[in-house]
Give the backbone structure.
Amino acid sequence: MTAIRMVSSVLLLVLMQSGALLCARRFRGGRNPQPRRAPPPPTYRSDRADTTESFPLDFTAVEENMDNFMTQVKNLAQSLYPCSAQKLDYDMKLNFLENTTVTCNDGSAAGYYLKESRGSRRWLIFLEGGWYCFNKENCDSRYETMRRLMSSSKWPLTKTGTGILSPLPEENPHWWNANMVFIPYCSSDVWSGATAKTEQSGYAFMGSLIIQEVVKDLLNKGLDNAKVLLLAGSSAGGTGVLLNVDRVAELLEGLGHTGIQVRGLSDSGWFLDNKQYHCTDCVDTVSCAPTETIKRGIKYWGGVVPERCRQTHEGEEWNCFFGYRVFPSIKSPVFVVQWLFDEAQLTVDNIQLTGQPVQEGQWRYIQNLGIELRNTLKDVPAMFAPACLSHEVITRNYWIDVQVKGTSLPRALHCWDRSLHDNRNNKAPPKGCPVHLIDSCPWPHCNPTCPTIRDQFTGQEMNVIQFLMHMGFDVQKMAQQQGMDPSKLLGMLSSGS
């Protein structure tokens, strides 16, 4: 009897393990995975207990009916390791701030989504992006067309994490088991504001205060026991990381939590204050030059910037919204992720890449943009910069597929984690684990692992050569300029050399 029970226990463990591996294989993809199915729409969790299957084991008369017992073991293993995420509670749940005086633009309650990971001492706080507004007129327009980014009135009760916020190890190999926090962007101020709602502005701009209050609330939910806090964000959220990572570190230190290592991850928030391709009237965030929108916005928002950067650019604090200007003043470790040909940067620079092929002057402008970005990133110790035309990446499910010089972004972030840990323990940095990765090829999408581009009108996927031809790229002329045979140039473009 005892021997049979031991054998049964071993078989149970084997079945459970094989079920887990089967699930992992079904989810895991290569560099160009099949499109992942969208998760089911959020549902209320109160009814899950009623629908979950259970498989009680009957231990009576095991010796007489071993086949029946093993069937029960198999059923139990399948119930413990379902290959469908819908039986597991992976979603982040909405919480509103305890401090009700810190609000969204329209005065509605600010908040955050949280998925706790019991036992983990790592926390990831993500700042959502979504442009901004900088005067009463375009804030009114934003409120009519994008109210979700200014009000919490229709926020869903739950949110599913993707990319670096995913709880699935096959999609998020190194951060899947962290405590996940998603802060919705509802302040329209690049996470910089500290101003309550007034009659003159009609809106509150409290992005910086929202971050501070979220951190305070999380201290009562386990953050006080954290070892690492990674403040991450994309687009305006990526810029928000650069503006707030030291403030979060100082807040925790001031509250006595000196053991928490605060780090930053800025995705697609490293904008340039360069000259537009052609200047237009400053009417909205798209037509207005980057420097002009920030100059107007920082006054309208009552924006705050890192103290050391403010001292460096006193009277011209708008400089601190641009990565290469604020970065030297940041004390916390920060990893920068930036497409060399960022779509949002090209948009504010008045370069449109849809419709008619680009003109020669536009093509030169695009190439120069890549060169300028490379120059501003060369002194950033930890960074990942693919030569792709895109915007945002760390919350995309294809974020594991993009590579620079053979290294994926999750791998580079893991190397960065290790190097920071080893540095604190006076160890040599790990070999063969790069953290400074930047493409050297000069054209948009010359990296073959870039995200897929589709023709705006046909919806068809385009390879890099089709994309460049679509943009008006002259292979003969470019080959002549590079002093090579056109067929050789085409081969290099195809391979991403």
Q: What stands out?
A: DSSP finds 15 helices and 16 strands in the chain. The two ends are 66 Å apart (CA to CA).
